[in-house]
Amino acid sequence: MRIRPLALAPLLLLSACKPTGSELKIGVSAPLTGDISALGQSTKNAILLAQDEVNAGGGLKVGDKVLKVRCIIEDDENKPESTATVFQKLINQDRVLAIIGSQSSKCSNAGAPIAESAKVPQITPWSTNPNVTKGRSFVFRACFIDPFQGRVVAQFAAGKLKAKTAAVLYDVASDYNKGIAEVFKANYEKLGGKIVAFETYTTNDKDFSAQLTKIKDAKPDVIFLPNYYSEVPLQVQQAKRLGITAPFIGSDSWGSNELLTLGGADLNGYYFSTHYAADNAAPVAKKFIADYEKAYGTKPDDVAALTYDAFGLLFDSIQSAGKADREAIRAALSTLPSYKGVTGDMKFQADSRDPIKSAVILQIKDGKFTYYTNANP
Amino acid sequence: MSESIVYWLQQTLNALQLGSIYALIALGYTMVYGILIMINFAHGDVFMVGAFFCFLAAVFLGLPFAPTLLLAMLGAALLGVTIERLAYKPLRHAPRVSAIITALGVGIFLENFTLALAPYPKNIPPLLENITWNLGGVSLSSLQVIIILLSLGLMFLLDYVVHRTPVGMAMRAISWDKTFVPLMGVPLDLIISVTFAIGAGLAGAAGTMYALAYPVIDPYMGIIVGWKAFISAVVGGIGNIRGAMIGAFILGGVEIMVTAFFPSTYRDFVAFTLLMLLILARPYGILGKPRTQKV
Amino acid sequence: MGWEWLMAQRWLLPVLVAVGLVLAFAIEYNLFNNEYVREVMMYVGIPEYTLEYTLFNKYVQLVMMYVGINIILTVSLNLVNGYMGEFSLAHAGFMAVGAYTAALLTQKVLPVAVYPGLFPLAVLAGGLMAALLGLIVAVPSFKVRGDYLAIITLAFLMIVKSVIENIDTIGGPRGIPGIKKLTTLPWVFFWTVVSIWVVRNFVYSKYGRGVLSIREDEIASDLMSVNTRRVKFLAFMVSSFFAGVAGGLFAHLLQFISPRVFDIIKTTDVLIMVYLGGIASIGGSILGATVYTVLYEILRPSNFADLVSWLPAVVLDPLNEYFIRHLGVGRMVIMPLLLVLVMLYWPRGIMGLREFRWFIPKRDLEAHHRQPAHGGSHGAAHGH
Prior knowledge:
The complex is a heterotrimer of chains A (377), B (295) and C (384).
Chain A: E1 23-30, H1 37-56, E2 60-62, E3 65-75, H2 80-93, E4 98-101, H3 105-118, E5 122-124, E6 139-141, H4 146-158, E7 165-171, H5 175-190, E8 194-201, H6 209-218, E9 222-225, H7 232-241, E10 248-250, H8 257-263, E11 271-274, H9 283-296, H10 302-321, H11 326-334, E12 339-341, E13 344-348, E14 355-356, E15 359-365, E16 368-375
Parallel strand pairs in A: 1-3, 1-4, 4-5, 5-6, 7-8, 7-9, 9-10, 10-11
Antiparallel strand pairs in A: 2-3, 11-15, 12-13, 13-14, 15-16
Helix pairs in contact in A: 1-10, 2-3, 4-5, 10-11
Chain B: H1 3-36, H2 43-60, H3 65-88, H4 96-117, E1 122-123, E2 132-135, E3 138-141, H5 142-164, H6 166-176, H7 188-213, E4 216-217, H8 221-236, H9 241-261, H10 267-281
Chain C: H1 3-8, H2 12-28, H3 35-43, H4 58-83, H5 91-109, H6 119-138, H7 146-166, H8 185-203, H9 206-216, H10 218-223, H11 228-254, H12 264-277, H13 282-298, H14 301-307, H15 313-322, H16 327-345, H17 362-367
Helix pairs in contact in C: 2-8, 4-8, 4-11, 4-12, 4-13, 5-6, 5-7, 5-11, 6-11, 8-11, 9-11, 12-13
């Protein structure tokens, strides 16, 4: 392995890697650079945490052997074409056992056909678009899908909040935001509510004054913002400056402690749906939050938690498969009995690779996320 | 006031604010653009670094508004001059596009270098007390007033510097001809450096004001803003300072008003179609004049 | 037996194309994965080849196909930005039009599942659609020039993206998943050769002279009775046609497209490849696209580690510790630095205004070595 005379020129022509056997190789496709690079950083943090935890205990017990885990993290730049390259590289060059990733749905959509045709199990932590797993057998996810969450929030708005009218402001160029917004609208109207403003903007916009002025004019009882945590504080601040007093509600993309740092007191009293409540969490989640904080100095966001869970799912299924075999892992994943993860209990339905999970509604109170209610539609 | 008038007034105010923000960035852009006829793709990223300087000054040094602004401007100006000396100066006699691509490279470098240092978006603390007045349903904030006044003030100052001072005269001369003007005793390198310093300094100021108005900053925030500054500068007429200002207000106005009176989903479609038609109607920008071409 | 001699052997070009095509088929049908190849590889000292590794695995194939698609994009953009001296930013928009047209055809209209031979028709249709829309940019170019035209092309790109985002029947921002994988190495190779061949013949035709004369001085060429409108029409249509073809191939390679794939970043990527390779040079475009695409892969941490694994441990260990480990994000820091350095050393790009003699027609070579002496005047159209 040390000496490779031909290494220079045909680098790309040669598969180059050490044979498997003594370790389990897991591939990770993460957006380390590009427009959602903050999520890539969280992904990397969570992955390294999970890897070190397992290896500190000697490794993973597979059958009668104990194997160390090695993660190969590649940057997909949040571009579908780079994701395809990363998947091919991880599968053919590094010959990984399974792949975690990618995060955004557009990237997972480009990676999934490759994993499927190479019969490599893939778990995406954060891609909520239903298309990603549809019609495939090797592609799983650790999060809810858009329709589920849109329904949860619509019921919360119409039920607990007793809002008769609602407005939505969302990013039209992003499939996550658009997906939830549309499901929310459909369900909210079905429940007898009225959508009085359905406004959009485009990714990277920072000025929402025109849309918010329109929303103010429509006088909604509640405003739904299914947008990323880096955008929500700007939207809320600008709305308050315009004199909007209606409460805001959000989705799991709010679920990062960065939201509190970026938004401060402006967000007090608002609600959002997410996977778990830190103050009401199971011991496994409490431990994860503490470990993460100790290692990186910040609280984990929902991407970190979901990535950690995707990893946990994979570990459990490798152990219950009892061998480092892709097909066996796939079979073990789909029949896994309820997995107790950081983001709640999850289990894959028969013939579907989307987990059944429960959602919680959190309220932001005194600069903290506090448990408000359970939501099981 | 009737509701529709309030709505209309509020949207006009929104347009004024967005236009001023674009103007702040476009002014620095058009400085370099007008003098060197160079599309400085790195400008948006210098602007981003300016916003990060503002973050450093405000959070780590705990400085109040005025010194923070000054520090951000100085830091950005220094960065601008350094980039010019290292990356653009050797290409002064190369084809125009070489400098464009180098600028693109410098921009990507700045983005990812900042990303390596600051992977998460950062929050800018409110450096100015922001008072919101409610004028019969129309809300107006002190920050809006400051931004609008600052961009107007800077435009007049810049116009004065370029058209009424010896340095400005030298800049215009260099813009006209880079071979013979230095022979008349104009220090070429110095003037170009000054141009870059002013342009980048303005980017730093714009970065600070932008960060105050939209207090979440990230390493990629400069990309789209840089393109908008480019559009403003070209629509107004290349190299024309007042033109850049007008271009910025047109861009901001179109974006806001299209959202206000059309379904907001079609904003980009309508706004860019209007821009296209505008250029077709005025092929040399709004204030630009066709340059006589010698054959 | 130097470079000069090699360049004089013009018969090599068709031979290389033929060899390339054969190779493309051989790789596609996995003919390299056999006993004999394995023995040869072991003989030259690659012991792990005995394991299940294959020469030209799927990863390498994918990178090769990206290189091909990028060559098509670069050569075609070079026609407008390099040879004609305009600054078009619309290339990703044309690519999007081609990709969506081709993908919708193979998904909804053409029975490609039964007759995979219909795939080139879809790609062709994508190219034609893009060429048709190329008129939207070509017509304003009669009146508007330089950076003002650049804004029109930028607006075109934004409009295309916005329109696609707003049509829900073609997926809106969600894009089209589940496109059939019809793009294969031979097809990419075929279209790459076609695009190079067409652009090369166009550039050295009567119209090509017109294109060059527009770059040097549009008014003068008008006076010299060059039909500048027709020339611009053709140049924009050929350019956008191949952008559309590249889009069609891209869609059926990635099996998924969404409007965000074709944003301004994609355009700047192609711009970089054009100017890195060198304006007004087909050889440069091939080189630029190849170098840029391959370098991105080499700089992946594990690839880079393999590349330098022959170094002695004294060098390797610190290199690993201080450099390779940080390549994750660092790759994106190093790439632009390399780009800036290349531009400083070769301000006109690696092959700027020069050409492999293989691509220059004989009559031009014989007339007198076509060395454009006035290369520096590129951009004069934007001039003072």
